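Predicting holo structure, uridine-5'-diphosphate bound.
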Amino acid sequence: MPSILYLDQSGQLGGAELMLAEIARQVGDPAHVILFDDGPFVAYLEQLGVSVQVERVRLGVTKSGGWLASANAVPALLRQVRTIVRHARRFDLIYANTSKALVVGALAAAYLRKPLVYHLHDILDRSHFSPMNIRVLTSLARFFAARVIANSQATADAFVAASGDRSRVEVIYNGFDPTPFLTDQDGERVATRVSLETQSSSFVTIVVGRIARWKGQHVLLEAARSQKDWTVWIVGDAFFTEEDMQYKRELEEIASTADLAGRVKFCGFRKDLPTLYSAADVVVHCSTAPEPFGRVIVEAMLSARPVVASNAGGAKEIVRSDTTGWLVAPGDFCSLRETLLEIERNPGLAALRAQAGRSDALRRFSIDAILGQIRTSVETCVF
Ligand code: UDP
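Done. Tokens:
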């Protein structure tokens, strides 16, 4: 097994970081993680026994930024490349887990003539990235990455559509340890509802994920507006930009309007997701832009909860409509409301699909199988 230096720009606990934690824990001998920012991800990795350190850098470049910001970032970028070169000398391979990690990792790998793997967790299209940033990322991947691991077919397709090199791409889904989601949490159901000031008779819909406009929490609020016996739990927090904070304030405003007041609970970032999924009646994923993968959908399926997801991106590769869940048009709150009503009125059908979803998720997203694929992919880049 090669020694691997993992790079990630974030100190927060996002989907890409949670997947990286599992990979770094089990792939690489030794494995070491360098983060470009501090945050709760550091303690999370330490708790898993993963060697980690923070090398802070402020590039001042955003996903949708232009030339000027990038030009201003050059001195900081070069300093960071020098730092990473210093660390990377003693590793066989550099593994870039985010876009900024790719920029730094590609230059360091080129300098040291070491293989580079880019784990792509983003859909490289105009809804998130500027045309210039898309060109930079696909070009760096073309010239410097031995392999691009895409976390869904949708992610791979967007990469190729943006002129990424198809021959380097391999689709490997996220993997999950199902244990926490299989534990029977039914005994906690009442207590969880009480702790969230939710009536036991209420029809509880839950949306889990970062608070960001494209994650679409407002779509669920609109769907729930006319249904007085529904409660909405919004789990997750805004942690990236001022724009996300502004969106959170807008959600709080919508939630305080007369139709919804008292029926929306902002739960913040939570670590007890299996308990929350179990205490809810249905898990809603309502991103308005294509989701690169959608970990929360798989977690809900493993928890045997009915799932309604946006019919786009990775979500439609995970959920099989009419069999393991429901898919609705992104942003269409009327269709979402109709689907949720169907689930509320047909608990038998909902339970059937939820069980089918659990079996399907157990089969397709096993952490061991997926780590095996990543190990093979990485080894072929080195040996
Ligand atoms: N998550 C969590 N607590 C929260 C909100 C989210 O642990 O309060 C986790 C969630 O379980 C999932 C991940 O964050 O594993 C989000 O991944 P996803 O792919 O759904 O979205 P991303 O963050 O990659 O956009």
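The radius of gyration is 21 Å.
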